[in-house]
Amino acid sequence: MIKVVVGDENPKYIELISRELKHELEISVLGTASNPNELIKIIGQEQPDIVVLDFMHPVETGISVVQRILKKQPLTQILVISDIENDQFVGELLNIGVAYYMIKPFQVLDLIERLKFIHNYYSSMLDLFYIRDRRAIQQFLVNCFAELGIPPNYKGHRYLMDAILLVSQDDSWLNGITKRLYPAVARGNRTTASHVERSIRYAIDTAWAKGDFNQLQKLFPYAIDPARGKPTNAAFIAKMADIINLRFSR
Prior knowledge:
The chain has about 250 residues and is of the alpha/beta class.
């Protein structure tokens, strides 16, 4: 059962989302709040798996709320929903440890799929080591992608992060990158394996076309495909997973 708390300054919006979520047998809505202080109080009482929240106007307030929740409940995942479409803003949320960002408006079915993926991803696919350090790992990847020239608004950014974290936990995913890894990432993002593959390839192509070549050479000195001048999807994912495991070794 996925334990969820919902926070939004619009009570009618909270009611709409909560009503739809309560139809899902795998999801239990433990509480709702229309102001940040009430939300944080409920989170402390209920210890949810995931918090769905907005409160992003003004942005400073939203960031502060997220930081307070993460400080108080470091293992609780946060899914931010907002109408703000700004790469820097999204990047900052990912940097401080938000699990996912969804732009309003969206289909509730998409929210449900993302809640299930976040829960499965952090409770089943990653062990306690990665749950404990996942914010540092996530921030490290976001910083690396920024240096490599892969912006956070690219779908390949999200897919790469999912794939790299899976492979860093279990490198056997690389034995079936087309038949296992891409489909696993696709299921969590409500898309197709072919779309995941294309988006990751496009993100890597963009890095090699527009990114800092010195940084690329530094991170991938032996992961270059001689025929293409850049690493394959598998080589990129494998190299980043190795970097994570070396940097965040037990």
